[in-house]
Amino acid sequence: MKKLFMKQNILSNLDKFTVKNEEEADCYQVHGDYLQIGGKKLHIEDMSGRELAMVQQKLLALMPKFFVLKNGEQVAEIKKKMALFKAKYLVEGPGWEVKGSILDHDYTIMDGDREVVRLHKAWLSWGDSYEIDISDGTDETLALAVVLAIDCVQAAQAENRAASEDR
Fold this sequence. Notes:
Elements: E1 2-8, E2 16-21, E3 26-33, E4 41-45, E5 51-57, E6 65-70, E7 73-81, E8 88-92, E9 96-101, E10 106-111, E11 114-122, E12 128-134, H1 140-166
C-alpha cells in the first residue's frame, strides 16, 4: 500500500500544489487551467515537470464528466451518476466504482471486490488536505487523477451552494 498526501491552498487563485509521499517528499505537481474554453484541465506532472496525466472536464454534459488522458490517449472517463441521497461515480476504462461517503470525504474506489484507493479528507485544516492510500499494483497516476476529478465536482457544487445562499 502506497500513501500520498495532497494539500491544496485555499488562498490560491489557481489550482497549483504538490503531492507528497509517506516520507513527506514532493512526488507530483498538479496545476490547473481555469480559463480554458473546453472546460477545466488539471495537469499531473513529475517533479521535473514532465506531464504524466491530464484530467479534462467535459462541459456540455447533463451530469459532471471528466476524462483522464495519458500520453495523449484517453484511459478513463469519470462520470457522476444520478442518485437521490448519495453521490455516485463510475470510472469507465479501468472499470472502477466509487463507494462510501463522498460528501463526508471518506470513500473507496473499488475494482470489483478489490479496494484500489482509499481517500480521507481532513475536516479541520487550512485548505483541502487528503490522505490517499493506493493498493499495490494500482496505477498511481490514474488513481490520483480520479481523486482530483471527484474533488473538482465537489468543489464546484460547494461553490454553487454558496452562491445560491448569497442570493
